[in-house]
Amino acid sequence: MLKPGSWIAGYRIERTLGSGGMGSVYLAKHPELPRSDALKVLSESVGATEQFRLRFLREAEVAAGLDHPNIVTIYNRGRAEVHSGGDGLLWIAMQYVPGSDCAAEIDAVGRGLDARRVVRIIAETARGVDHAHRRGLLHRDIKPANILLSEIDDDASFDDQRVLLTDFGVAKPTDEVDNLTAVGTVLATLSYASPEQLRGDVLDHRTDQYSLAATAFHLFTGTVPFDQKESAAVISAHLTDPVPRVSTRVAGLSPAVDAVLAKAMAKSPADRFSGCREFSDALTMAVRGGGTVRPSVDVPVQQPQHGVQQGGVMAGRQNAGPAGVPGIGVQGMVGSPVPQQPRHSGPHLPAAHLTSGPSLQHHQTGPRPATQSNAGVVAILVGLVVVAVIVLVFIVAAL
Fold this sequence. Notes:
The chain is an alpha+beta fold.
C-alpha cells in the first residue's frame, strides 16, 4: 500500500480511500491540473501476468470512452514502477466523487435502505449500465461498493444525490473473442455473480442485470440474496436456488417486488428483462404500488404522447417471468401508469363516432326522443282520417 506523500505516475498520494482484493484506491493530486483524482492501483500479485496487464490496459482504454452522468469518468491508465526490479504497478486515474458508496451506507445504518431510495439508486445505476452496454462494454462486477453516492447539503434530500457506477477495471468488451480472461476465472464478487459467470459461459449484457438485481436485494434487506458461509454453497444457490422473497423481510413491500427480482435474477439470461432500464422501471412501479403480478396476457394500451418516453415493461404486452414466476404486469412511465382505452358498450360511443349524419344514427341506441314519438302519433292519426274519407266516398257513390 502506498503511503501519503509518495509518488506514482506523476501523482502525489494524499490519502487512502479504500482497498480490496485487487488493489487500493487513493486520493491523489493531479500532476498538472488543480484537482485531485481517484487513483486505483492494482496489487502486484493481481497484475503479475502479462496477459492480465494487456487486458487491463485495453479495457481501461475502452471504458475511458464512456461519457455518462451515472458513470465515473476514467481519465488515464498505465503502468508505473515504484521500486527497482519490479514489473510496475497498473494504475487507473478516475473522477473523484466526494461522498460514500452503497456498501458503506448499509454498514452505517445496519439494515436495508428506504425502499424509495433504493429504486432511485437502481434506476440511476441502470441508466449508466445500459449506456455502457450500448457501447459494447460489460461491467461484470456490479455491487454496492461500486455504486458511489455523492455528498449532499444538509438541507437537501436524497433525490439530489448523484449516483455513479465505478470500477470498470474488470469490464470487458462484448465483442471480445480472444482468451485474455482465463476460462473458469470469476472476477466478479461472488455474492452478486450471475450463474453464467460462475459456469464460465459466454457473457452478454444480461449478466450485469443479474448483478444489479442482486445489489437491489442487498439494498432492500441489508443482506445478500444467498448468504451461506461456504463459497461452494453460495455458488450452488446462484445456480439452483430460487431468489428469496424480499416482501417477507421488508415490511410494506409488495409481492410484485419479489416477482421483479425473480425475473431479473432468473437462472437463464433468456428469462430476464431485455435491459437494466426495463428492470429498474418495473422495480420502481412495483415499489410504488403500480405493479401487478398476473399471467402473461396481451392488453391494449393507449400510446404515449409524442416526447414522452415509454418506460418499464413494454406497454401492450405482459412479460413472462422465469419458470414458476408470473409475468410482471407493469406498463407505461415510471410513477405514471399509461391509461387504458375505455371499453365501450351500450350507449357510450368513442369520440371518433360522435359525428353528424348517418354514422351517428347508425350507432344510436336507447329510447327515441319525445319529439320523434309525437310525430309518429300524428302520422298515424292523419292516415286514419284519410282512410275514413275514402270509405265515406265509396258509400256515397253506392247510394
